[in-house]
Structures are given as structure tokens and as C-alpha cells.
Design goal:
Layout: H1 5-23, H2 39-63, H3 69-78, H4 86-113, H5 118-130, H6 132-135, H7 141-163, H8 169-192
Length: 193
């Protein structure tokens, strides 16, 4: 379905943020009490985030010969992402998109599973599957499987980062660092390729 980026963003905000805020308002969202996050969890999240930037850039450099960058550029151009609007989209991805995804995948969904170990596995799996639609035109099936597996493992790590503090701040920090890694690859592709 070819909808403009802005309408996809509105739909995502409705599904990942507005509807859950209405449906689960009685819970008062304890995972949003970001001030309860201990300093050690924040330090670990920052260190993990820096490592993830290196992993993302390293994976891109290694896998670059197998990525159809021309097709990727055509796909993002068709979605309205140009060199002019990229900085604005990057800011949205870094702050808005990452917060919505953490709220939904590391806050709402795990809370629905309570203390079951499924809270670590299934939301991470759904997080990975959700990203398939984004990556589908960019990668061959083996690279797509690798990307989805990496996202599943990443989502699992994100959730583990939250376990100590009970808030989504650690995973949000790691998520923003991961997005920085992806956006740095985007800068290379859009401006220097």
C-alpha cells in the first residue's frame, strides 16, 4: 500500500501510542516513570548503544556488496525521503519513532504478559516482524532473515535492559543509539554514494 510517509506516521502514532494510551490508561504506565531508572542501567544502556552503532556500521561495511543500494535509494525516494527532508525524518526517527516503538514494544506488550518469560520473547519477535515491511524491498531473502534475526535479538536485549529499572528509558537509549547507526549509514548512502 503506497501511502505518503506522513499518513503512515499518523497511523503508527494512533496504533502504537494513542489507542494504547486510551485502552490502558488505568495502569498509569509504570514503565514511563523514567526518573526511577537507576544510573547503572543508564550507563549500561549508553555503553551498549555505542557498541550497537559499531555493529551496525560494521555489518553494513561487510554486507555492502550484497545490498542493492540503488534499489534502496529508489525505494526511499519513492517514499518521499530526499536529501532535503532526510534531516527532518532523521530527527523524527531518532526521537519520536524510537519513543513510540519503545512505548509499544517494550512497555505495553511486555506488561500484557506480566511476569511470564514470554514478555522477553514475543514483543521482541513482534518488533522484528514489524520491521519486515520496511526492509523487504532492500534485501535478498537471506539478508532479510539476518536483519529480522538481528532485530529479534536486539529487541530481546532492549527488554533485558529494562528489567532492572522497570522503565523503558534504558531500551529507549539503546534504540536511539541503534537509530544513530542506521542514520549514519543513511547519511553515507544519501549524500556520498
Amino acid at each position: 500500500m503506497a501511502f505518503p510517509y506522513v499518513w503512515k506516521t499518523v497511523a503508527k502514532a494512533s496504533l502504537f501510542l494513542v489507542i494504547p494510551l486510551i485502552l490502558f490508561r488505568s495502569t498509569r504506565f509504570p514503565f514511563l516513570r523514567l526518573r526511577n531508572t537507576d544510573r547503572k542501567s543508564i550507563r549500561i544502556a549508553i555503553g551498549s548503544g555505542i557498541a550497537i552503532i559499531g555493529i551496525i556500521i560494521g555489518a553494513f561495511v561487510i554486507l555492502m556488496p550484497y545490498i542493492d543500494i540503488d534499489a534502496l535509494l529508489i525505494d526511499i525516494a519513492n517514499k518521499g525521503v530526499t536529501a532535503t527532508v532526510f534531516p527532518f525524518i532523521a530527527l523524527y526517527i531518532l526521537f519520536g519513532n524510537s519513543l513510540m516503538e519503545e512505548f509499544f514494544f517494550r512497555g505495553i506488550l511486555p506488561a500484557l504478559f506480566g511476569q511470564s518469560k514470554l514478555r522477553l520473547i514475543l514483543p521482541s519477535f513482534f518488533f522484528a516482524i514489524y520491521h519486515v515491511a520496511i526492509f523487504l524491498p532492500w534485501f535478498s531473502p537471506p539478508l532479510l532473515a539476518l536483519a529480522v534475526t538481528g532485530l529479534w535479538i536486539g529487541g530481546f536485549i532492549f527488554q533485558l535492559a529494562n528489567e532492572r529499572s522497570g522503565t523503558i528509558l534504558p531500551s529507549w537509549i539503546i534504540h536511539m543509539f541503534a537509530d544513530i547507526g542506521v542514520l549514519l549509514v543513511g547519511v553515507y548512502i544519501i549524500y556520498f554514494y
